[in-house]
Design goal:
This protein has about 60 residues and is α+β, with helices and mostly antiparallel strands. The chain is built from 2 helices and 2 strands; from the N terminus they run βαβα. One of its GO terms (molecular function) is N-acetylneuraminate lyase activity.
């Protein structure tokens, strides 16, 4: 059996939006800081919970920065 690259606790992130449908980077930063502070070993951004299909390539790049 092949060893998995990912071990430990991971979190699939949601992509928070403002009322005007722009990405809420302040809220995203707060979520990331919260889960890291509480012991998460890895994050999954832009997965199926990350609203990827509705984001432009530029927005996707901004989320993973």
């Amino acid at each position: 059996m092949k060893k998995s690259t990912f071990t430990g606790t991971g979190v699939a992130l949601v992509t928070p939006f403002k009322r005007d449908d722009s990405i809420d980077f302040r809220a995203l930063t707060n979520v990331v800081e919260h889960v890291i502070k509480n012991g998460v070993e890895y994050l999954v951004a832009l997965g199926t919970t990350g609203e990827t299909p509705v984001l432009s390539d530029k927005e996707q790049g901004e989320v993973i920065r």
